């Protein structure tokens, strides 16, 4: 398998995976030695899902849509996630990108 980002040949490895800040363990993945992108195998993804379900973390994440307000983009935080992270209006958070397709909001 080649890395879809930089076309480097990927290596098999075990990578840690955390969900909602909880480390679920290490899972089989293809790892790009050049850009460090990690792609979990299908089997590993199933294992990750099962583990997350077991820990009661399943169902916390959900799909959302980017909106537009003034000159900023807005993302609605679903109530379930907000209460899981104890987020509330006015609370200061730190927003930063992680990789090229992940937005992290830390409280
Ligand atoms: Zn790569």
Q: Could you list some keywords that capture this structure?
A:
107 residues, alpha+beta, three-stranded antiparallel β-sheet, two-stranded antiparallel ribbon, binds zinc ion
User: What structural class results from the helix and strand content?
Assistant: alpha+beta
Shape from CA axes?
A: globular
Radius of gyration, rounded? 16 Å
Specify the biggest β-sheet: 3 strands, antiparallel
> If helices are DSSP runs of H or I spanning 4 or more residues, what is the number of helices?
2
Alpha-carbon distance between the two ends: 37 Å
- Spell out the helices and strands N to C: EEEHEEHEE
Give me the side-by-side strand order of the main sheet: 1-2-3
Small-molecule binders? zinc ion
Work out the helicity level: 10-25%
What report would you give on this structure?
- This protein is α+β, with helices and mostly antiparallel strands.
- It folds into 2 domains: 11-54, no CATH class; 66-106.
- It is 18% helix and 36% strand.
- It has 2 helices and 7 strands.
- The chain has helices spanning 42-54, 79-84, and strands at residues 11-19, 22-31, 38-40, 66-69, 72-75, 94-97, 103-106.
- The strands form 3 sheets. The chain has a 3-stranded antiparallel β-sheet with strand order 1-2-3. A two-stranded antiparallel sheet has the order 4-5.
- The mean pLDDT is 87.
């Amino acid at each position: 398998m080649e890395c879809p980002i930089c076309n480097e040949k990927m290596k098999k490895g075990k990578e840690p995976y955390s969900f909602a800040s909880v480390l679920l363990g290490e899972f089989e993945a293809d790892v790009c030695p050049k850009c460090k992108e990690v792609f979990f195998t299908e089997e590993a993804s199933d294992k990750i899902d099962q583990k997350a379900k077991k820990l009661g973390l399943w169902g916390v994440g959900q799909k959302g849509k980017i909106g537009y307000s003034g000159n900023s983009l807005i993302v609605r935080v679903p109530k379930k996630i907000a209460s899981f992270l104890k987020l509330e209006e006015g609370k200061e958070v730190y927003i930063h990108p992680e990789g090229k397709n992940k937005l992290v909001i830390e409280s």
